[in-house]
């Protein structure tokens, strides 16, 4: 009977790990139900930091989410912290659910006998977070997931293309707008539309005249910004207008 129980635990843990590995992003609420204030005792921030420590890309629910992810609710996991504290002990655990409220992973309860709430909850949550060591999380991108699809209207037809470096200039002939993204990059958005559309993300290098992009580089030349990449072993250079990238 013990062997059967152990086998069930191992299979369950493997299933959780496989499911969680399908997700790269986690949303952490800014307030947990058992607390009275936003980020009380810094538990919400601590939960985010713990998830990031183990490889997730985590966002508090009041933080800005990248434009290309905002409409993809089911691309995220949703974190919660459960409180099961008593008179003499503080106990918490972290739960990860998908967009359909299905639990994909939950930690063991962490506990603390500290008397002060801030110290007790902090210690209990860190103890619970140690369960992620056994999860061995590693994001595995789904190869069958289609690329982000966008539409660009022309006089005769509607073009529907995936956003790739080799198609940027053909789809977006109008100037692009550079929106700061984190500390090291920008998101390029359409500039002359009522609702800006995400085009791509560029990342800073040691040179202010060069940015890294997926499948290529963005270089400043005498006549403006050029997107350069290889196509069929040939170097392609395409001029792109970016209105506010100095």
Descriptive keywords:
single chain; 246 residues; alpha+beta; Double Stranded RNA Binding Domain; 2 domains; disordered N terminus
SSE string, helices as H and strands as E: HEHEEEEEHHEEHEEEEEEE
Largest sheet data: 7 strands, antiparallel
Sheet/helix structural class = alpha+beta
**Mass-distribution shape:** elongated
Q: Please mark out the parts with pLDDT under 50 across 5 or more consecutive residues, or reply none.
A: 1-18, 144-167
Number of helices: 5
CATH class of the largest domain: Alpha Beta
- Give the name of the CATH architecture of the largest domain: 2-Layer Sandwich
Protein architecture, described:
The protein is elongated. It has helices at 2-20, 43-53, 117-129, 132-135, 168-171, and strands at residues 25-28, 57-60, 76-83, 90-97, 103-106, 110-112, 149-153, 158-162, 176-181, 185-190, 198-204, 210-213, 216-221, 224-231, 234-240. The strands form three sheets. A seven-stranded antiparallel sheet has the order 9-10-11-12-13-14-15, with no helix packed on it. Strands 1, 2, 3, 4, 5 and 6 form a six-stranded mixed sheet that branches. The protein has a two-stranded antiparallel ribbon with strand order 7-8. With 246 residues, it is α+β, with helices and mostly antiparallel strands. The chain has two domains: 23-135, Double Stranded RNA Binding Domain (2-Layer Sandwich); 149-240, no CATH class. Strand 4 (90-97) and strand 5 (103-106) form a beta hairpin. Helix content is 21%, strand content 35%.
């Amino acid at each position: 009977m013990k062997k059967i129980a152990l086998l069930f635990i191992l299979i369950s843990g493997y299933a959780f790990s496989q499911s969680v590995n399908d997700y790269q992003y986690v949303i952490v609420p800014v307030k947990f139900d058992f607390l009275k204030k936003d980020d009380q005792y810094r538990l919400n921030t601590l939960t985010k930091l713990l998830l990031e420590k183990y490889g997730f890309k985590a966002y508090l629910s009041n933080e800005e989410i990248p434009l290309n992810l905002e409409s993809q609710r089911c691309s995220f996991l949703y974190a919660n912290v459960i409180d099961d504290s008593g008179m003499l002990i503080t106990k918490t655990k972290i739960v990860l659910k998908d967009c359909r409220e299905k639990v994909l992973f939950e930690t063991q309860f962490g506990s603390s006998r500290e008397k002060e709430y801030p110290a007790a909850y902090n210690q209990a949550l860190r103890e619970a977070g140690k369960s992620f060591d056994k999860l061995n999380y590693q994001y595995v991108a789904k190869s069958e997931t289609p690329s982000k699809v966008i539409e660009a209207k022309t006089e005769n037809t509607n073009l529907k293309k995936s956003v790739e470096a080799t198609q940027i200039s053909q789809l977006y002939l109008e100037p692009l707008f550079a929106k700061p993204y984190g500390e090291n990059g920008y998101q390029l958005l359409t500039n002359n539309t009522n609702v800006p559309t995400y085009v791509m993300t560029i990342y800073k290098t040691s040179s202010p005249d060069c940015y890294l992009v997926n499948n290529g580089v963005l270089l400043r030349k005498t006549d403006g910004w050029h997107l350069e990449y290889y196509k069929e072993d040939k170097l392609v250079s395409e001029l792109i207008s970016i209105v506010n990238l100095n």
